[in-house]
Amino acid sequence: MTEAEWWASTGSREWPHRLFHWLSATLATDRKLRLACVACCRLVEPFAGGAPFPYLLRLLEEFADGKEDYERVERAVSSIGASHSQRYQSLQVADGHPTLTEDVELRVQAAILATGSPFRDREWHNSRKSYPYPSYVAEDVIGAASLLEQQNDTERHIVRLLHDIFGPLPFRDVAISPAWRTSDVLALARGIYDEKAFDRMPILADALQDAGCDNDEILTHCRAAGWEHVRGCWVVDLLLGKPWREGDATPG
Fold first, then answer.
1. Quick one: 68 exposed, middle or buried, by C-beta within 10 A (0-12, 13-18, 19+)?
2. Least confident piece of the model among 92-106, 138-152, 217-231
3. Are 49 and 111 contained in the same domain?
4. Based on the structure, what is the number of domains in the chain?
5. Most buried residue, 9, 72, 168, 199, by most Cβ within 10 Å?
6. What span, in angstroms and rounded, lies between the C-alpha atoms of 43 and 194?
7. Taking a C-beta distance cutoff of 8 angstroms, is the pair 155, 11 a contact?
8. Cis, peptide link before residue 46, omega less than 30° from 0
9. Beta bridge partners of residue 245, listed in sequence order
10. Residues 20 and 125 in one domain
11. 144 vs 26, 43, 148, 190, CA distance in Å?
């Protein structure tokens, strides 16, 4: 994939699946991929049918950032997954035709569970599955959105989320000057990340510019009108020293 193709990708059902597959092949970090899956699931989270799935999604987000215990998350995924399977089977036995609401719920729940399913390493997963786990998450999210007649918007939204999380990094390095990482810039970046206060991104751009940042790509991303940022945003991650690819040294 070229960078031009990456930025041009906008819609059609194949794009989210293709992009996730490609990102996994480029050895994107599990943290980035899992945060992207969480962001995708949040697009349809209101249709998950309530507890315990919003709780599980929050747990998986914390797990992606290394703030949650592996064993606790694994137990939660196993327990909730077993209940999900029982419900699916009971609906099939009952009449074989879940209602629209039930069908949407099952697909959203499957997407959230898939976000938490690959607790083995990349080699283990690739040896047993046709596609990386984020591709299955995208399929279930888009499947639920299709039933809700929101497929095209959701496909575009997923691609924009991936653009926010990875930006140009799969194609080229973006240098962050140590001089730009002032105490004000770092405090803003940490606050934006921890509090999900992405409305402060233009303020971050101003602080970067005050620190001497002259990178138009970075500043434009921070100031883009109508852009939805999520945890894993490539600019915030670069400033906080979070690599995008497995094995990379910490930036800056």
1. middle
2. 92-106
3. yes
4. 2
5. 9
6. 20
7. yes
8. no
9. 28
10. yes
11. 28, 10, 6, 34
Same domain, 155 and 210: no
* Paired tokens of 56: 């599980």
Q: Are 111 and 141 in contact (CB under 8 A)?
A: yes
pTM metric for this prediction: 0.92
As a whole number of angstroms, the distance between CA 227 and CA 221 comes to 8
146 closest CA partner among 201, 94, 107: 107
63 and 161 fall within a common domain: yes
Residues 6 or more apart in contact with residue 53 via CB below 8 angstroms: 45, 80, 108, 109, 112
**Which of these ranges, 33-37, 65-69, 237-241, has the smallest mean pLDDT?**
65-69
Residue 132 corresponds to which amino acid?
P
pLDDT tens by residue, 36-59:
999 999 999 999 999 899 999 999
Buried b / exposed e over 176-194, threshold 16 CB at 10 Å, is: beeebbeeebeebbeebbe
Q: Please count the other Cβ atoms lying within 10 Å of the Cβ belonging to residue 26.
A: 14
d(CA 83, CA 91): 12
Pair (192, 149) in one structural domain: no
Residue 13 lies in a domain: yes
The overall average pLDDT reported for the chain is: 90
Q: What angle do CA 37, 118, 19 make, to 5 degrees?
A: 40
Range of the domain at 221: 178-240
Of 116, 139, 166, which residue sits at a domain end?
A: 166
Asked whether residue 251 is assigned to any structural domain, the reply reads no
Residues 153, 221 within the same domain: no
Same domain, 40 and 79: yes
